[in-house]
Amino acid sequence: xxxxxxxxxxxxSIWIVAGVIIASLFYPNYSHSRQFCxxxxxxxxxxQKLSPLINNYPLGLLFILFGYYLISTYAESTATVAIGxxxxxxxxxxxxxxxxxxxxxxxxxxxxxxxxIHSWSGVVLLxxxxxxxxxxxxxxxxxxxxxxxSLICLLGCFYFTYRLxxxxxxxxxxxxxxxxxxxxxxxxxxxxxxxxxx
Length: 198
Known about the structure:
Layout: H1 2-6, H2 8-24, H3 50-54, H4 56-73, H5 78-99, H6 113-138, H7 144-170, H8 174-197
């Protein structure tokens, strides 16, 4: 069982890419460049029920299991335990985002309560995978390679989060920048997961 748990970070990194692609196949005319990933599970969308089932709920479990693996296996390392806690928080936020759908229109000026919960949970989700690699960067117990890798992923996330805010205001291609922003976070998870089981 422990051997499976140690791979859950890698599995989650691959699952999230495959899950978004698969769910989008059941959403007519869905645009990966113009639409957010969360729009797959938005209220009233063709994939409102399907997307959380194949994305949020299994992904949340995988994140939580990997966080548990880090906390339980590296209990003597404060930095690794802190990273594990951030991964667990990421998993819980993923569940909340799946249970409370965003509104169909991401530009609505009067979001519903479920959409507000979804949005705030999304903020926690984003921050948890900013704090986690930041801990890895400043932990002197990590080798230089993983610290540099974590810093690169952080900078990539920051840059494309900024680009996301610009493209959202301009209503151009926020989907592309959201995927790249979160993509750097998932890339970090994948790389960190490989490092921890190597």
